[in-house]
Amino acid sequence: MLQFFAKYKTLALVLAILSVIIISAIYQVLAPKPKLRIYQPSDVAPELVDTTLQHVKKYHEIADFALINQEGDTVTQDTFKDRIYVADFFFTTCATICPVMTEHMGQIQDKIKDDPRVLLLSHTVTPEIDTVAQLKKYALSKGVIPGKWHLVTGDKKQIYDLARKSYLVAKDQPYSPYDLVHTENFVLIDPQRRIRGFYDGTDPRAIETLIDDIAILKKEGQ
Questions:
Q1: Burial class of residue 214 (count of CB atoms within 10 Å of its CB; 0-12, 13-18, 19+)
Q2: Within 10 Å of residue 187's Cβ, how many Cβ atoms?
Q3: What is the spatial distance between Cα 168 and Cα 44, in angstroms, rounded to a whole number?
Q4: How far apart are CA 113 and CA 111, in angstroms?
Q5: What gap in Å lies between CA 12 and CA 29, rounded to an integer?
Q6: Residues 108, 112: Cα–Cα separation, whole Å
Q7: Is 60 exceeded by the pLDDT of residue 2?
Q8: What is the Cβ-side half-sphere exposure of residue 127, based on CA atoms within 13 angstroms?
Q9: Residue range 112-120: average pLDDT?
């Protein structure tokens, strides 16, 4: 009896391995592929959304815009056409959360620098201070790659409206027209200009999740 089992031991082992491979392959085929949520204004904390949009439950997308980047070039929605991008709001003289956010955005840049399908976009909330020259100086000090990571300035009202009405990441300053309190949020935008995720730009674990979600979003478009 022992000789019988010894004779077929190798065959049994091979069959067991093949069974595991086949079951795993079937699971991969049948298992639902991960998909990111599409966020609407009604899904976000009301204090981060303009009152005109707090009721909106579908069809939200990033509005058209025209801003100037650190190279002095005009950046519009067409710059990001058919691309995934990560957006945030900051200012170069910020000494609290912005340095950490910029460092983490730099880490994302390192991950996607060779992928033309993914870009980065950082809006200054103090355009009166952050001129093109100031953004250029800041970009050079932070290792920003031109064409991959756009630091933009421009009309303050437009930037305010983008933060409150498009990206949904800033608190209003009701007694100071067109001033706002930007949050630490990074926002993941898909090629259809829809919000697919919010991430704490000061949290290393959230940055890891964001990088993973970019990969999921890329597969969604394949």
A1: buried
A2: 25
A3: 7
A4: 6
A5: 26
A6: 6
A7: no
A8: 19
A9: 97
d(CA 148, CA 86): 11
Give the pair of three-digit tokens for residue 164: 């409150």
Sign of CA dihedral 168, 174, 179, 181: negative
Residue 86's nearest CA partner among 210, 220, 218 is 210
The token pair that represents 86 in the structure block: 């990560």
Mean confidence (pLDDT) of the chain? 88
Tokens 């933009």, located at residue: 152
- Confidence at residue 189, expressed as pLDDT on a 0 to 100 scale: 98
Residue in 188, 161, 163, 162 with CA at minimum distance from that of residue 83:
188
- Is 152:69 a contact under the CB 8 Å cutoff? yes
Q: What are phi and psi of 49, to 5 degrees?
A: -125, 135
Q: What is the pTM of this model?
A: 0.84
Structure tokens at 10: 């190798």
